[in-house]
Amino acid sequence: MSRNRTLRVTTLAAAACLLAVTAAPAASATAPRPAGGTLILVGGGLKDVRIYQEIVARAGGAGRARIGVLTAASVPPSQDPGAADPATCSNSACNGAYYADLFKQYGAADAQWVPIDIEHVAAADSDAVVAQINAMTGFFFGGGDQYRYVTSLLHGAAHTDSQVLAAIRAKLAAGAVVAGSSAGAQIAAGPDMVTGGESYQALRDGSAPGYFDDATRLGHLPEGGFGFFGAGLIDTHTGTNGREGRALRLAADTGRDRVFALDEDTAVEVEHTGTRHETLRVLGTHGVSVLDLRRARTHAGPGGWSVENVRYSYLTDGDRYDPRTWQARPAADRRPLRPAGTTPVPANNDVFHSVDNPDGVPYSFSGTARALAATTAQRSATATTYESGPAFRVTFTRTGDTRAWTTDGRTAASLTQLEIAVAPLTP
CA-CA distance, 107 to 386, in Å (whole number)? Predict the structure, then answer.
């Protein structure tokens, strides 16, 4: 995680909070909220001012919101070679100060780093830190490695709530907002939280429970993360890192029937979390892929693994989704797209934007899907992996249920119910 930090208290000042935490004054009374709070889960690379402003608004609004910032997914200062330089540091203390300053910039009355990291796990059961949590009206979990949140807030292998996590869980249930980006979004997942992996290796080799030093190996934690989000699996950095393949394989391997794969600088906002009124809204610059595996069929043969009958939706800013009915509703500024273009879907030989391809293009998977939704030249399109041995082919097919929406009358801003199949490409 690297960024310009023009607004920041020094690392030493932030780190001093590890030794003494002063409980903030109680938040002023606000109007009663409906049952269940709000989750705002971001796919990483958070820059969109609207998302920061939405977090502040959900926490009580400008001048009233009090945001607790948790950055235990970052390394502690002792493991950061640049810890002494406020301009380049990237550790729990300076990242906490960075986000706290941002939330104040966007209107929060107060924002405080919550001084917990993997070298200070005892703080997660500290009465003083719990008091700090209870004075907050919203929370933000920063990025890094989601397993560090397991270590610091879930007592590691014991996988039990620390007092701090229990307090945040209670605040969420009572109506508070809990937001997170990258690892901070992943940790909101329930069972089978992803711990790492790349799409090609996931399709080729499958998944395994655990946390692995090999970044290409698809791992998952059966016990899950915090369990704040129960509507499906979560993945992040999807379009930039081509993670649709790993999300699909993990869901199939673990028997899960839905994945929400978030693009960078894009959030899924979950209102009335954990209640029967729970609904989702997309906010940000890119999109959220929804993979529906209810009718999926997998096969593992001599040539490799395959899956068919997956339904794919790509939802963008303002679109809504009801997890109970599995139905999407387009944003108010959208109108139905009636395919009129006659240009064939461009060839795509790197559907998962491989890290090994220097000429790769991000948002490759969703780009092919959107191009197919906008053309009359073909009903289906194929794309392949950059890697071979074996290569995999992804087939996108329009069905009678496929719908697309547009803002300009030519391109697909969002779409639903495209059929997806993945199979090894035989010579």
Answer: 45
